[in-house]
Amino acid sequence: MQNNKVRIERIFDAPVELVWQAWTKPELLMLWFGSDPNGTVQKAEVDLRVGGAYEINFKDSDLTEHACHGIFIEIVKKSKLVFSWEWKSEPGHISQVEVNLFAFGEKTKMIFEHKNLNPDSIHNYESGWIGGFNKIDKALKTKQ
User: What does the alpha-carbon distance between residue 7 and residue 117 come to, in Å, rounded to a whole number?
Assistant: First the structure.
């Protein structure tokens, strides 16, 4: 975590449309969200519009439960998604996630940033997001 943010670049072996859906469709979010490779998502609600809210509840394989929620700030279909992020377990600290997607042939390049991270958080944001992104690859292979 550098300068209170995490930045990750990743190439997914899937078209932009599918990666966009992985971020915006509840049924696809439920396939990958959370860092634990054997974790499960209990609930994913998405009101995809500027000012709309989302909430995601997930459970690790050790049965630890997590819940996050926020508001969509900027939406550029199939290209850019910006939203606030707040852990239910760490109320009052709001961070911001920005996801940029670029067509890279038949693949998608994602530039991801999570900013204004809580320095006192129990969460390891970088390894958490990388774990989730590893699950996106697996989930998208089943949808192509």
Answer: 12
